[in-house]
Amino acid sequence: MKLQIEGQSLRVRVNEDELALLLTERPVTGRTRFTHDLSLSCTLRAVPGAAARFGGEPDAWTIDLPLDDVRAHAARLPTREGLLFELESGEGDPLELLFDVDVRDSVRHRRDKK
Q1: CATH of domain 2-113
Q2: Which residue ranges make up each domain of the chain?
Q3: Cβ contacts of residue 44 below 8 Å, gap of 6+?
Q4: How big is the CA angle at 31 (ends 26 and 32), to the nearest 5 degrees?
Q5: Which domain of life, per UniProt (predicted)?
Q6: Mean pLDDT in runs of 10 for the chain (114 residues)?
Q7: Is 112 exposed, middle or buried, given 0-12, 13-18 or 19+ CB atoms closer than 10 A?
Q8: Strands across the sheet with 95-101, in order?
């Protein structure tokens, strides 16, 4: 899983193996240790429901995506288009959450299955 942050925009990109986990309702977790005392984890889940959610702690994020949306997105692969959600940030501009699947990995994965 790759996270890309710019202002009020958070992009979450997964590969095909991680997508397969999400489609079976298993979480994908990524961790980065910046220093001995500072790390960040992010757990991504595809869950029943109609809304994306962002929560957790400052150093341990949880992102829930609507399972039906993730399944529909997977059926359209490979594509450069992602799923876009707008989440309330509590104040100021909303958080734009973009979920996508690495298109190069997706093309490679489908080519290798033939």
Answers
A1: 3.30.1360
A2: 2-113
A3: 1, 12, 14, 18, 22, 27, 28, 29, 30, 63, 65
A4: 165
A5: Bacteria
A6: 97 96 98 96 97 97 98 94 94 95 71 64
A7: exposed
A8: 2-6, 9-14, 95-101, 83-87
Q: Which long-range contacts (CB under 8 A, 24 or more apart) does 77-84 make?
A: 77/101, 77/106, 77/110, 78/103, 78/106, 78/107, 78/110, 79/103, 79/106, 82/11
**Long-range contacts of the stretch 74-80 (C-beta < 8 A, 24+):** 74/19, 74/23, 74/101, 77/101, 77/106, 77/110, 78/103, 78/106, 78/107, 78/110, 79/103, 79/106
Asked if 55 and 41 count as a contact pair (C-beta separation under 8 A), the reply is no
- What is the DSSP pairing of strand 9-14 with strand 83-87? unpaired
pTM of the shown model: 0.89
Pairing of strands 9-14, 95-101: parallel
